[in-house]
Amino acid sequence: MNLFWVYDIPSLVFANLVMASFIAVGLTGQKLSRRWVKRIAGSDGQYNDLVSTTLATVGVFFGITLGLISVGAWQNFADVNINVNQEVSTINVLYRSSSLYPEPVNKNLTNSLKEYVHFVINDEWPSQRKGIVPKGGTEKVTVFQKALYAYEPVSESMKSVHAEAISTFNEMIKLRRTRLQSVVTGLPETLWLVIIFGSLLNLVIPWFLVYDRQFIQDLMIVLMAAIIGLLVFLMGAMDYPFRGEFSVSSESFALMYERMNR
What we know:
It is built from 8 helices and no strands.
């Protein structure tokens, strides 16, 4: 089942939707199982210590698991953001190197880079936010590559500049390829099944607690479900770094394009 539609809604709505879902499951299950639990376990709560110990043990292990996955999702998000900034820095260096070439090579190279950056901002990024690996950028890169490799430097200084420009261009290609691969890279479905079913199982254990004041038990379930829901939302929001409201932006590309046109 495709759940990518959640990235089309605001993050606040997404978070509330996830928390509300877990809270609804927790409270509904608690209400449906209440009579059965009291009939099996009794109404004096003599098994509460056993249930509490089980809840604490399972909660610790599953909490650590969720925490590690959350850290991993955040690390992946941060790495993608760093990669984008490095790509921008590489293009900026390449643009400055291109300005050192003689005319008309100078103008051809710098104009090609401007067109490429403009394409990334206005065509590639909207596609990335939809989870689609963009097409068309390769043609823009090829135009620059042909202009760069067609030049044959004569002086020693230009030979040095040309060699450095080629090296920087190759680095830009590598960073671009990494960015495009990140568009469709997310947590495996098997891992998501473990997260969802593990979270739901953690909400089942409190159903076996017996209290005279049911409000307290319901409140505990609400708080527990809300915390689990927040962690699941956090992992979902960061899972695909280019999707949703909380995503890697094209701001660094936009700032560089602005400087290019000054």
